[in-house]
Give the backbone structure.
Amino acid sequence: MQNKKIKVLFAAFEASPFIKTGGLGDVAGSLPIYLKKDGVDIRVIMPLFSSISNEYRDKMTKICDFYVPLAWRNMYCGIYKLIYKNTIFYFLDNEYYFKRDKAYGFFDDGERIAFYSKAIIESILHLNFSPNIMHLNDWHTALSAVFLREMYREVDKCNNIKTVFTIHNIKFQGMFSKYVLDDITGLKGNFAAESQLMQSGAINYMRGALNYADRITTVSPTYAKEICTPFFSEGLEDVLCRRKNILSGILNGIDYEKYNPYKDNEVYVNLKPITKNITKEKDINEITKEELIEDKIKRITTFKSNNKMCLQADLGLDVDPNICMISLISRLTDQKGLDLITYILEEMLQYKIQFVILGLGDKKYEDAFNKFANQYKNKVSANIFFDESLSKKIYASSDLIMVPSLFEPCGLSQMIAMRYATLPIVREIGGLKDSVNSYNKYTNIGNGFSFVNYNAHELLFTIQNALSLYYDKKEIFNNLSMQAFDTNFNFEESAKEYIKLYSQLMEV
Ligand code: GLC
């Protein structure tokens, strides 16, 4: 089996840098590139949104076009190809569905996404590529698993394809009225499909994939367990418990080239490589472990305080490298635990800290953060927008970052933060639990701080604990920052796990 080439069609509705609304975009824009490097023939397939910039469009070439049947409709679909970082990306063109100013949130999402899911499979018939695995991500691709088995079972190029369905966030499932099943999917009268798709009188796209996929994965081992329980499963625990034996969690990673403190152009000051005069005076093997650690901590603290002072000046905060900077870089939604933060913010701001926010989302949170920024002008900076370059400056400059989510399938910001030696404060759930090892005061081991219950004062006490180390036991705090920096979240590791999964699936 080893020599049978793994060929994967990787479907995601968004992929960075072409279009990104959340973590799915980050993962779909980097995991395939790591898999390709490891020898997998992987190709990404996504919509050709009108917002994709000309920088990429100009380099695309058209491969073919055809029509996609959707019940009584026959809808045009063109395929464009672009090679990005040595990996093939296919873009599905249909202006009626994808010439919109954003990816989601339209009255006809049920139809747009059914079109995309069907077009993925129709593409296989027209491409000079025969995947043995179709890797589907989130509810936007879920119907592909259903269509593949129910409508393309007899088609040569399709009947041996295995499907992997990855849940990035179970909160979003794609539930629509039964009309969508009857009028759009073309599955009307197919009672087997109907019974696997219906839930409480509505059609649920994700439920379909969970019933039809050959393997189900999610983005952390802890979330894989959590979603089999009623609180986290959002109504899907029955099917997940039933299919537990094919469900697993693979922790996401991050793109170590994109986030590289040594080389980033976006941070003010880069992290310096190992100090020259240690290596000049001695052979690298003669340097003691203690000397290396001391040098590393010194380089990290210099990197952070130099960045911090530049950012403080840019954001209009007091310029002082010795004030603890706490940040929040997040979509501003309920999921992210923002109710906890707004509840304790007034109390938190009585400490000697600066608080920097970056992100967009629900108006109630945007308003709350703006209000605090007005009230505490030199302490709080609310940046209610998203800007990748500013995010890197904040990661590089902060001492602590908060991710106190209500639920968190994986979470990427705690990992990015650690790459810039920033300590995360997280709630012990999902991928946060799997990536953050809370500070242990007896061993001094840890790469962050965590708390268990969804309780605002538990968060506040955890912040106080971190602040007391920052101000009174700086050596320990700096050592923790180094441990965070040393934790490996390179996507390479997750890619290996996916390859194992693909290989197992091909043996079945
Ligand atoms: C979703 C989840 C987030 C995860 C990301 C990528 O955005 O909410 O936890 O990190 O997908 O898998």
Q: What stands out?
A: Residues 289-315 form the longest helix (27 residues). The chain is about 45% helix and 20% strand.
